[in-house]
Design brief:
Blueprint: H1 7-28, H2 30-57
Length: 63
């Protein structure tokens, strides 16, 4: 099954395969680190803040 993959991720993946993470950081700079940080910030906010809040309020249950 094929999923949609943005073009910038395909480009970053090819650079990573070519020379590793050091080359990726060298070519793309802080954009890669900012994207990585933002992804984990959003993911952790959903996992550790939003889901427990909704469970506490009774909006979602474990039935």
């Amino acid at each position: 099954m094929s999923f949609y993959k943005p073009t910038f991720l395909s480009e970053w993946n090819s650079i990573r395969h070519e020379g590793g993470y050091k080359l990726l950081i060298k070519k793309k700079g802080w954009v890669v680190l900012a994207a990585f940080f933002t992804f984990y910030l959003i993911r952790d906010s959903i996992l550790f803040l939003l889901i427990p809040y909704l469970a506490f309020k009774g909006i979602i249950t474990c039935n």
